[in-house]
């Protein structure tokens, strides 16, 4: 909402003089629309959805003010309705309130003070209503997300447990020790999946509910930490891990979010490799320049199909069943970047590899 | 006892452990030996369209997981229901999931080929229930 923009007010009256008088009194402070009848008034409402206040005379030839308000209540619910009338018997007041659902009732002849105060109060009410509408919308969004969340969480948490239960069941009937070992390996994967999922939920919570803790970040430390983390994976899965850091100036950001971003991108890069590729490669490069951190994570793995690229940052989206994933990782990455005002771009070719490029401004 | 040649199985589940378990349970006791496992529903639908059982006596039970990446259980059913009737009739689809909710129950009714929706874990009792459901 812009502060400087004038509040738009519509005045409907069949008496020309009243209209002219109204405009003369208030045109400096407000943007005034004048309508001689309700048809003209409707046209203004249609063209100007941001009209905030509607004044309407009660006594008009075709339709009364109350009838007009009753009509626009559902089609134009946002503008605040104020009835102006010379008749102030109790019956017409009751009708105006009950049928026209008016915000205020002004007696003719009106004084400038009456109108100004009505516009003022009406505008406050209008703003409060708009805020509630915005809140409701975001509440609905959060509610839908929670719904989806609860469903997927039960599935993703119960899934591995149920698998383990099934495995224990069939283990009773297996005598062959090598089959048992095979089973145990898969059971271990199941436990790891569940653990990873819980870790992801923890990250999700931290990003969404936690406060950012801005401190100075030494990217050499961060990268060294990642090298240590992936040392074993790199060796076991024969994935070469190249890193590059170029930081000459201090950089401030939230280390937790930074870690979540790098962990998820790197674990994906190591995970989604082509099984038979003899030269598996993951590269991490970080450059700090002009108050911007540019981070690139690339791999020569399985890549992402073009039709899935638009979905990869969605919660619970999974693009492959080659490896187990929670569908949570990139969602958390995007969320963390949102908090840091960062940006992410992805370039991927199926069967050739994927590159994520992130730019984060200094805080 | 001779293996029952007239009943075959297809397991579709992205979880490799669940596939392993289903495969073991079905083969256990030597009653059935035709078990084909798919961790991707897209591969399964391609296979089913071109590898229908050889005769009308032979039936294939499809054990189908709901939540899978790329093509989930319901997307699989969309494709399955488009197959010619004589092929469809040779299969009996049983859906399984680790978390069955109301909307899943509602959706199942949209696909006439789905026999039952069942809760994981898959076990011997579930297998007998599926077989007896064939009538």
Short description:
The complex is a heterodimer of chains A (363) and B (135). Chain A has 363 residues and is of the alpha/beta class.
Features:
heterodimer, A: 363 residues, alpha/beta, five-stranded parallel sheet, five-stranded mixed sheet, 10 helices, B: 135 residues
Please explain how this structure is put together.
The complex is a heterodimer of chains A (363) and B (135). Chain A is an alpha/beta fold and 363 residues long. In chain A, 51% of the residues lie in helices and 20% in strands. Chain A contains 10 helices and 12 strands. Chain A has helices at residues 16-26, 38-47, 65-75, 90-98, 112-171, 177-209, 219-236, 255-271, 306-309, 329-339, and strands at 8-12, 31-35, 53-57, 80-85, 104-107, 215-216, 239-246, 252-253, 280-289, 292-299, 343-349, 353-361. In chain A, β11 and β12 (353-361) form a beta hairpin. The two termini of chain A are 27 Å apart. Chain B has 135 residues and is of the alpha/beta class. Chain B has helices at 16-27, 41-50, 73-80, 85-88, 102-108, 124-133; strands spanning 7-12, 35-38, 59-65, 91-97, 114-119. Chain B has a 5-stranded parallel β-sheet with strand order 2-1-3-4-5. In chain B, α2 (41-50) packs parallel to α3 (73-80). The radius of gyration of chain B is 14 Å and the shape is globular. The mean pLDDT of chain B is 89. The chains are: A alpha/beta (363), B alpha/beta (135). Chain A binds chain B through residues 151, 154-155, 158-159, 162-167, 169-170, 173-174, 182-183, 186-187, 189-190, 317-321, 324-325, 327, and chain B through 14-18, 20-21, 24-25, 28, 39-40, 67-70, 97-99, 101, 120-123.
Low-pLDDT residue intervals, each spanning 5 or more residues of chain A: none
Distance between the termini of chain A: 27 Å
Query: Looking across the biggest beta sheet of chain B, what order are the strands in?
Result: 2-1-3-4-5
- Oligomeric state of the chains in view: heterodimer
Q: Give the largest chain-chain interface (CB within 8 Å).
A: A-B, 29 and 24 residues
Q: What is the structural class of chain A?
A: alpha/beta
Proportion of helical residues of chain B? 25-40%
Q: In what order do the strands lie side by side in the largest sheet of chain A?
A: 2-1-3-4-5
First-residue to last-residue Cα separation of chain B:
21 Å
Please tally the helical runs of chain B, counting DSSP H or I stretches of 4 or more residues: 6
Biggest beta sheet attributes of chain A? 5 strands, parallel
Identify the overall geometry of chain A. elongated
